[in-house]
């Protein structure tokens, strides 16, 4: 879909060659439409060898069991977004330990999905009955009888059988880096 108006100043957009690629750019200000992107965040909360799953009550994926998650908000650190989504969808408190997987999906809206390993901190899994209609901790054995989404199966394998801790949060970086959420090896 062509972008006709600038999302920064409302001015008219034109097609201009930038870095060897035709792109939509504003005729009034310096804004360039580089593309459309979204960032998904997902939670892998493991407790006693079981993984927290929710059953989707809405499309896309209605009826499938998935790990809790959502989309990054404009001004909210992703660490807080994923924590909030887990709380909202199924009433479980969990704290981010690190990033254990990433999925790249280049398409009309280029999506990058970041999967977090999270530590269980409290709460009984209780579905919100809006986004999800069931929730609980399940073993691989139990999941064999459930309608688990393929991507969730992959993430559960990473969560239970991953070889490293992944990227962990750096709360005290070597140099002051204010305003950054930092995850590192
Ligand atoms: Zn503009």
Automatic annotation (TrEMBL):
Record-annotated Nudix hydrolase domain positions = 36-161
Q: List the InterPro entries hit by this protein, alphabetically.
A: NAD-cap_RNA_hydrolase_NudC, NUDIX_hydrolase-like_dom_sf, NUDIX_hydrolase_CS, NUDIX_hydrolase_dom, Nudix_N
Tell me what this protein is called: NUDIX domain-containing protein
> What taxonomic classification does the UniProt entry list for its organism?
Bacteria, Bacillati, Bacillota, Bacilli, Bacillales
Q: Does the keyword Signal apply?
A: no
Q: Which organism is it from?
A: Cohnella suwonensis
Q: Which UniProt keywords apply?
A: Hydrolase, Magnesium, Metal-binding
Q: Does the keyword Protein biosynthesis apply?
A: no
Cofactor(s) named in the record: Mg(2+)
